[in-house]
Amino acid sequence: MPPAPTHIRDLVQAYLQRHPGERAALTPLLALLDTGPAPTSRATLPAHVTCSAVVIRPDRTVLHIHHKATGLVICPGGHVEDGDETLLATALREVHEEAGIPPGALCLTPQALAGPIDIDINNIDANPAKGESAHQHYDFRFAFCLLPDAAEVALQPEEVTGAEWRPLDRVASPSLRAKLAAAAVTGEAEPVNASILIHDGAGHYLLHLRDNYPGRIWAPGEWSLLGGGREPQDATLTDTLLRELAEEAPGLALTDLQPFSVERVTGVDGLCVPIRIHTARWGGDPDTADLREGVMLRWFTPDMLHRLLLRPSTIELVNRHAAEHPAATRPAKVPGSQAVRNVVGVHLYLEDDQGRVMLGLRHPDSAFAPNTWHLLAGHCEQESAVACLIREAEEEAGLVLDPADVEFAHAVHLVDSPGAQPRLGLFFKVRSWKGTPELREPDRCTAWKWWDPDDLPEQLVPYTRDAIAGIRAGRAYTELGW
């Protein structure tokens, strides 16, 4: 199936966010997407969508081909075909057909990750031989870096008579020339993704089992590293990694974060994806990491990797790190001899006018305590505990809290197993609030309910039960698992 109009509209709207001055020129395109049955079909007149590939070498020159039918010197490109699921796929197919450059020899430029670098409007003369009247092409131009070790261009003689590499200031299209200059495109194949190789210093590596969504995500149903792609708001790849970790597993409190290597993998669309690999240390229980994407996190040693559905490149990466950083034999720990990071979580102890306590039923697919009742809770980010409580109450249940009404009620310091990462749970009461509990995050919580504290549900997070008992007894502190 060709790209859906909704897919194309999303690209246009994102493009207009970056280039608002072109809205008037592209308004007819938006109308075509709303009303046209097939905006990418060459039979759709008086206008339809085409795609081009802007291939840039490290010396900052851009590939141009000599088009046989028109005599024009242009970037490789053409019409969308039925097998192209996205416009990006069209651009990749065209540059492969016309110039012999496979997708694996290309990667997206860091300066144009969000979609086409340019959308140009080309006036096409009538072609009586093909039965085509004069019309327009809305040409979506995607920018790629050519890898330094890529093979030479191999032209398709049926459509192309020659090729040349032009410097940026001699790019044939004026609009594209301006966009490339404004974006300060370098042509260097820089990493645009970041991943984290987490180890415990004793030979164990933390891997992430991804959701099994073939065709929608990279490496579906496979074990992999945590991480993801750079987004426009990320100033650096370290920012990318920290944002991804906060989204995927906010319960991970990592130490000794540092860059390790740059690896190349093949993305879902066949493009080369350079990834900046970082390493970090953690020694906790994966089930306490508050996993929010994927299926699970688990520890593995290098000798177990061959039993997993895992990319060979990831196996090689883990083995290389293990060889360069031999597992240390851990001496017996003396209590208090070493500082250890504690995961800090906040919990809302809310009573109604009948003295009942509000609990939420966690989603059955939750990595932590599935199908189990729990207080409204969350992990602290770069914020105070009270600020975290106020944020979580609004995000999860639509409740508005005033900091002046928040008071400390109890603390639980717990460790799930010997050597696991400690957690400090802070419990707060509020004297008043605004709003009625809503299911704002149904993928995490499926119900809110008020419970009599003398008749709490059997399926209740154990430390939550202890905390509620401590609050009712007037105790300020509970220890568990030490």
TrEMBL record:
What InterPro entries does the entry give?
Answer: NUDIX_hydrolase-like_dom_sf, NUDIX_hydrolase_dom
**Which cofactor names does the annotation list?**
Mg(2+)
Classification via SUPFAM superfamilies: Nudix
What keyword terms does UniProt attach to this protein? Answer: Hydrolase
Which parts of the sequence belong to the Nudix hydrolase domain?
A: 46-189, 189-323, 339-473
Q: Does the keyword section mention Hydrolase? A: yes
The answer to whether keyword Hydrolase applies is yes
The GO terms this record gives for MF are:
hydrolase activity
* Identification of the protein by name: ADP-ribose pyrophosphatase YjhB, NUDIX family
